[in-house]
Design a protein that fits this description.
two-stranded antiparallel sheet; single chain; about 450 residues; DUF2252; alpha+beta; DUF2252 domain-containing protein; about 15% strand; 20 helices
């Protein structure tokens, strides 16, 4: 099977026929059924332990500390629980290429190859082919949890969740006012996103400040932050154990060999560019919440002109769905194509992707590569006022719709969700019920170290 099997989402129907087919799906699964959460009899601790077995042992205490910070942090770090629960819910049965972890913290800014700042989804470790509503459900649940962290009033949040669902639904309809090629050439450059969403002047000013911050985060700024000059006048990464530690000689050799393989699957112009650099230092450096504890490396590259750039190499684990349900040890057979799956999904779902994106195999493991922190900026939602938070989450929903519109089945999604607020009410109802499940799981996590 290919790393991202697209055969069962390819279509030979017209858009009008697909919309009709999607609308007909409501007879099989009504909005009311889609909005009813079905509790699942499971042991959350067992699932979490199976995932922990795939991670770096010395990083597990820090990972637990991060997940224990709040119910939202726990939700971010335990996607395997929701993935399993979704298997037992009523579904639209309309498959699409989905992010798999589309919570509000997994959207952000980054630089396009043309050096323009774009806003898009930015995490694809759990990406695959699943019913479209899996992403929307995770997004809406995350809105409630993130809003609780900030302390926004529940009634306002309830309404916002319905508004975010409507933003998804309306953006999907707008995408089908365009041609197939125009949907493919979607523009997620920041100003285009603001124009598409019709955001308020307050939001425009807020985004402008974030743009300024992101534009300062270039390769040389990253190098200054993460490296020091040693006694020989050479740049090297700072150690900060256990999160950031230098690797041994064997790992260094293996990563250098992996980079040679990586250069075979990036664009020719990128490979030629990178031929002017050499690897001068490597550390293992963990990031995030959900992926914290998986193997992740930073590679310092030094050019012939003495300038630097940093690549991030992340282990491409099987999706948490596999990890949480299987006790099999990770092997080359299980992990062989995971990097390619993640890279393929990212290229489909993002409007424009990092030109340095690629993958390779190393020591029976799969890895994917991207440039580290180049003009990347995420939003600290605890700093947002209500207007900013509302604008941010509805923009995320709109971006998600534009990503889903890349699947040939997207017209079926449009037909299914329609123009009625009944869909939004159903999705909000499901999200509110699932938040209670997250809170139960979170308390169990705190009570059982």
């Amino acid at each position: 099977m290919p790393p991202l099997d697209l055969t069962h989402i390819r279509q030979r129907h017209t858009v009008a026929e697909l919309i009709a087919l999607g609308k007909a799906r409501r007879q099989k699964t009504s909005f009311e059924q889609l909005g009813t959460f079905i509790p699942v009899d499971r042991n959350a601790g067992d699932y979490l332990r199976r995932v922990r077995a795939m991670l770096v042992p010395e990083l597990l205490p820090l990972r637990r500390e991060r997940m224990a910070a709040s119910a939202f942090a726990f939700f971010r770090g335990s996607v395997e629980l929701m993935d399993d629960d979704l298997d037992y819910q009523r579904t639209s049965d309309i498959p699409a290429v989905v992010c798999g972890d589309a919570h509000v913290g997994n959207f952000g800014f980054y630089a396009s190859p043309e050096r323009r700042l774009v806003f898009d989804l930015n995490d694809f470790d759990e990406a695959g082919i699943h019913p479209f509503e899996w992403d929307l459900r995770r997004l809406l649940v995350s809105i409630i949890l993130a809003a609780r962290d900030v302390g926004f009033k529940p009634k306002k949040v309830d309404k916002l969740v319905r508004t975010a669902s409507a933003s998804y639904r309306e953006a999907l309809a707008q995408m089908f006012d365009q041609t197939t090629l125009d949907r493919f050439y979607r523009d997620n450059e920041v100003q285009a996103v603001l124009n598409f969403g019709g955001d308020t002047p307050e939001t425009v000013d807020f985004i402008a400040d974030l743009v300024k911050k992101a534009q300062k985060r270039n390769s040389e700024q990253v190098v200054r932050k993460f490296t020091v000059t040693n006694s020989r006048g050479e740049r090297q990464f700072k150690d900060n154990p256990p999160r950031s530690v230098h690797v041994d000689a064997a790992t260094t050799r293996a990563i250098k060999d992996g980079i040679k393989e990586y250069l075979l699957n990036v664009r020719t112009d990128v490979a030629l560019l990178l031929s002017q650099y050499e690897v001068t230092d490597i550390i293992r450096h963990s990031v995030g919440v959900g992926s914290f504890g998986s193997l992740c490396y930073l590679v310092l590259l030094t050019s012939t002109d003495g300038s630097h750039m940093v690549l991030q190499i992340k282990e491409a684990l099987p999706t948490r769905k596999v990890g949480s349900q299987s006790r099999q040890p990770l092997t080359a057979a299980l992990e062989l194509s995971e990097g390619q799956r993640i890279v393929s999904a990212q290229r489909i779902l993002q409007a424009t992707s990092d030109v340095f994106l690629g993958y390779f195999q190393m020591q029976n493991k799969s890895f994917y590569v991207r440039q580290f922190r180049d003009m990347k900026e995420s939003i600290d939602m605890t700093t947002l006022d209500w207007g900013q938070f509302s604008a941010y989450v509805t923009t995320c929903a709109m971006i998600l719709a534009k990503a889903h519109a890349q699947s040939p089945t997207a017209a079926m999604i449009r037909g299914y969700v329609g123009h009625s607020t009944k869909f939004d009410e159903a999705m909000a109802k499901w999200a509110a019920a699932y938040v209670q499940q997250v809170e139960v799981d979170y308390q169990d996590f705190l009570d059982n170290p």
